[in-house]
Amino acid sequence: MEINGVEIEDTFAEGFPIKVARVLITAITERWAMEAAREATGFGTSVIMCPAEAGIERMALRSETPDGRPGVFIQICNMGYKNLENSLLSRIGQCVLTAPTTAVFNGIPEAEKQFDTGAKLKFFGDGFQKEASYCDRGVCIIPVMSGDFVVEEKIGAVDGIAGGNFFIMAENQASALMAAEAAVDAIREEEGTITPFPGGVVASGSKVGSRYKFLKASTNVRFCPTLRDEGVCTLPPEIGASYEVVINGVSREAIERSMRSGIKAACTVPGVVKISAANFEGKLGPHLFGLHEILG
Amino acid sequence: MEINGVEIEDTFAEGFPIKVARVLITAITERWAMEAAREATGFGTSVIMCPAEAGIERMALRSETPDGRPGVFIQICNMGYKNLENSLLSRIGQCVLTAPTTAVFNGIPEAEKQFDTGAKLKFFGDGFQKEASYCDRGVCIIPVMSGDFVVEEKIGAVDGIAGGNFFIMAENQASALMAAEAAVDAIREEEGTITPFPGGVVASGSKVGSRYKFLKASTNVRFCPTLRDEGVCTLPPEIGASYEVVINGVSREAIERSMRSGIKAACTVPGVVKISAANFEGKLGPHLFGLHEILG
Amino acid sequence: MEINGVEIEDTFAEGFPIKVARVLITAITERWAMEAAREATGFGTSVIMCPAEAGIERMALRSETPDGRPGVFIQICNMGYKNLENSLLSRIGQCVLTAPTTAVFNGIPEAEKQFDTGAKLKFFGDGFQKEASYCDRGVCIIPVMSGDFVVEEKIGAVDGIAGGNFFIMAENQASALMAAEAAVDAIREEEGTITPFPGGVVASGSKVGSRYKFLKASTNVRFCPTLRDEGVCTLPPEIGASYEVVINGVSREAIERSMRSGIKAACTVPGVVKISAANFEGKLGPHLFGLHEILG
Amino acid sequence: MEINGVEIEDTFAEGFPIKVARVLITAITERWAMEAAREATGFGTSVIMCPAEAGIERMALRSETPDGRPGVFIQICNMGYKNLENSLLSRIGQCVLTAPTTAVFNGIPEAEKQFDTGAKLKFFGDGFQKEASYCDRGVCIIPVMSGDFVVEEKIGAVDGIAGGNFFIMAENQASALMAAEAAVDAIREEEGTITPFPGGVVASGSKVGSRYKFLKASTNVRFCPTLRDEGVCTLPPEIGASYEVVINGVSREAIERSMRSGIKAACTVPGVVKISAANFEGKLGPHLFGLHEILG
């Protein structure tokens, strides 16, 4: 299979189950909504050593925000609902409540699972917090030094998927990186997914396990172009560098849509040779995304 | 005391000791150095509920980076060197090693305390890592999918200070926020400090303690303008909103310099009425920064 | 009439006829599409002394770009079709053809008026240009040092309107500016309009004429808060500063929609006191936009 | 000659004389200073069909701005002082006076040539303008709707040079573009130069003349990789794409410094094969910049 002359390998991405909360942050301007969103989703690339996986889904339209202000949808993901609730409390409490002019709304009011995030954060008001109804949503109002902070009582979460992914293999580093940037730009237009790594891109794809007992994951040596002389790298000579785009999302459909959109965008960039994907013989998880099915 | 007609209150900021590591991240372009820096310093506003305090200090000049590429100095701060070492390993390992085209260098080679951060991260190379000397610095080279990742063996840290701060009190929210943005812009030019909150600004200044046993800090009710009717807010009527700028740094001198620079910048913004500072009767820490001394 | 407690004055904006071309610029990434768009629309605030009025309308969705790459819609406006054709040739030829990785497509293929912009620019190819059909559009392909530059043969234009506007009057400069930024953010979501001034905002609203024979427009003294002592400023004391948002667009409906959306956004910002609009007793033009009708 | 394995061709760039004005724009925040600077320098890539050449030189340090606010140095360049004066009046009058919170200062007070730019713009104040001394500089104060606009009476200009340049020739488009971006980032750190093209990069390098009588410049066919089959492109097969960085500046020394800094930065990017430069057998101008001399 080919797109724009780029080979799409007949392989699949392997993802794993994760709990995903979706939060809508609004602020006085887009710029300030983004500052809060970036702080709240930072240090959130992989649950291997980060306290959560997190990222910016997309800008909200003004018609989607209860207060008519600019907004950003973010996702915070963790293993199990208990961990996720803690992540929500600490990330919203420390990074959004503290951010200038923000408000926080439930990004999945229709989800079955609902955390009392706002209802717990409200005690920061030290007795002066209030409960109110705002556009048919139950919110808490916490007085702060710059006015009032509004946070919805409930934040919803769903059984989502982490680890959707594809590899962009290119003639050289710059082509692979430009293509990864184009892919992440495209995924930012889609509903329901995040790309939790820095700028949406993973430079250091990994394999499960290592030769060291203390290390559960290590560099994916088969795909390391500087290991050609050692005979370890199995890449054909026309591939000089690869980047991976990792996608978490609220559903299988959302991840498929973003994989499709991201791969197509990557294939518009000159120098891209091949699209592949990371899988681990089922060691990582049960969610398989066949590239040919998604793109067919 | 007045600057540009803005009253500088005769009070002081109260800071506390913290361990501060300084890291230099370089990348192919400024944009990608910033992406890695932002991810690595996110979810890092306050050790109350964040796993570390972290922020971007300033852009590096090309002449300051060992590889002649664009660079960003970041600081990662934590209570005690053991916590700080863990923060370095996880934040650099998960947010910079994974970021496209980055390299990591020691931001304080002259410090007494040096962590083996690079020397520990290198095992990700699964036996294919190498040690080398690069511009007189000992580095580890880890093969990744896009080439080689270079990380300096040692990352230095010092006894620093957290919680340097000042309040910007203004006619209304927008004036206070513009002034805070101007202050943070100015502090970004200074050496040795970070402003760890979102966009450098704190909206929700707090007091130590609360009426709830489970909550160690709560909103600083005296400065909440929406609590005027309750008689709790003690602000004069001409103050409509306040923001706080919190500053961590490698030394007392660095924090003084940034407080001075930030306060002066805030006082260029119309509508700013008063500069004050947060202190807690010594409950927080021993480092006192008198506004009049700093600005005198 | 009031929105969020902000008074909407019962007045109207006065616009004038202008010719509007709409161009779709695509590029390898959003960042590079924006660089080209900004250069091509710069020095384009007012036909009084700029060679054209120009601005960024909105980001294109990937599904809207013929090449599936990121895109930006811009508008270039001028008095008369002949001037407009020259503006298109020079701005696209000098600022988009020269920009890395860009392509140029017709932003209004359905318009009656169509310029041969691409068909004229193609001669830069010095005989090596080619004509082709691309997604059912006639394009010219010009070889350049980085590959091929694709430009659609035709660029469409319509009889549009310039000078749609509203004033944001606020307690102070920072509130007025934050509100203007929020308004411009909101207008960027709308179809068919641009805000040609720097960052979308006008600081120096003008009246027609002056006491100097050589000057056709001068500062709108009635609204200059620093002329209160001279008795020239007629603003009530609660208004400390005003900004104007000027809107050009392809149709009356588009301007009405953006005025509505921008005014509503401005009214979300604390410290905004009143919304008004600029009119000149019919000296400027025939297009009147009543605030109460638009918002009613 | 080689840098990082990149061949530096033994050739030279050919520049031509131009008049250069240097302007310092300050504003309430960096963001607003940049908005004004971008608008004022837009549509300013080449005097062939733009009304001027213009660009952003660098951010100013706070210690360099008379009002202690954030600032940006821009340059506006034109053929002859009369054209340049008109460019200053229209670009500052339409794009900076109109921009929120800006002030304008002389960027070369020490130059012999000084225009009365501020002294002419002041009449916009319609009789309410004032003259004043501000930090030992003569300024005009013009009342506007958001407060007062301050503009220095004099703006200085010098005999400068346009057309300093180098080519970045790389394996493919993405490598060449990344390297161009890295070069422009580096040049932004240097004093006294601008890169007037979009994002600092030229995609469509040209030769003097064409086969069409009406066209004075056309695509540089020898360097067009898609003309390989026609036998017109003389590039070796390993070069897949090139970009040019064009540099204007206040002096020969400034351009040499920026060429050196930009070329070194370009050579840090993988995939770059060769650095060359554009010259036209003296048809363009008398200023020659030998790559080997500059880098030697």
TrEMBL record, chains A, B, C, D:
GO MF annotation list: formylmethanofuran-tetrahydromethanopterin N-formyltransferase activity
Keywords, sorted A to Z: Acyltransferase, Cytoplasm, Methanogenesis, One-carbon metabolism, Transferase
InterPro entries on file: ForMFR_H4MPT_ForTrfase, ForMFR_H4MPT_ForTrfase_C, ForMFR_H4MPT_ForTrfase_fd-like, ForMFR_H4MPT_ForTrfase_N
Role: Catalyzes the reversible transfer of a formyl group from formylmethanofuran (formyl-MFR) to tetrahydromethanopterin (H(4)MPT) to produce 5-formyl tetrahydromethanopterin (5-formyl-H(4)MPT) and methanofuran (MFR).
Domain Formylmethanofuran: tetrahydromethanopterin formyltransferase Ftr C-terminal residue range list: 147-294
Subunit structure of this chain's protein: Homotetramer.
Occurrences of domain Formylmethanofuran: tetrahydromethanopterin formyltransferase Ftr N-terminal (ranges): 1-144
Annotated source species: Candidatus Methanocrinis natronophilus
Pathway: One-carbon metabolism; methanogenesis from CO(2); 5,10-methenyl-5,6,7,8-tetrahydromethanopterin from CO(2): step 2/3
Subcellular location: Cytoplasm
Catalytic activity: N-formylmethanofuran + 5,6,7,8-tetrahydromethanopterin + H(+) = N(5)-formyl-5,6,7,8-tetrahydromethanopterin + methanofuran
Family: Belongs to the FTR family.
EC annotation from Swiss-Prot or TrEMBL: 2.3.1.101
Protein name in the entry: Formylmethanofuran--tetrahydromethanopterin formyltransferase
